[in-house]
Amino acid sequence: MGMINLNHESSYHQQIQVRYRSNRSRRGLYDGKDIRSGNNVSFSMKKTKRKFKPNVFKKRVYSETLDKMIQFRLTTSALRSIDKAGGLDNYLLTSKHVTEGRGLKMKNVI
Q: CA 93 to CA 81: how far, in whole Å?
């Protein structure tokens, strides 16, 4: 995570925290999910490092404005968010998580 200084018209400086996104999550629609780290804890309470990976799969999703199916790498939470937004087009246009990669390219096409 890095810090960015923004200069506004007022005299104070505001810092915004920027979250690191893995290359894997930049490729598809991950809805803010990413690889997290943690511990496996055994019965004896011995801790070993592990990774928690998001539930990702390839899926073809229908775009109403383009009138065709588009293949994305999606997480299950992104799929639920697409349903909640009322379709792929509305999700791409309104979601704050679509900032780069294939999702941004399709957002610009729509």
A: 12
Element housing 57 (H / E): strand 56-63
CA nearest to 89, candidates 62, 49, 53:
62
3-state percent helix, strand, coil for the chain, nearest multiple of 5: 25, 35, 35
**Quick count: other Cβ atoms within 10 Å of Cβ 107?**
15
How is residue 9 annotated by DSSP?
Answer: S
DSSP state of 29: B
pLDDT 10s digits, 48-103:
999 999 999 999 999 888 899 989 889 999 899 999 999 888 888 888 887 777 78
pTM for the model stands at 0.69
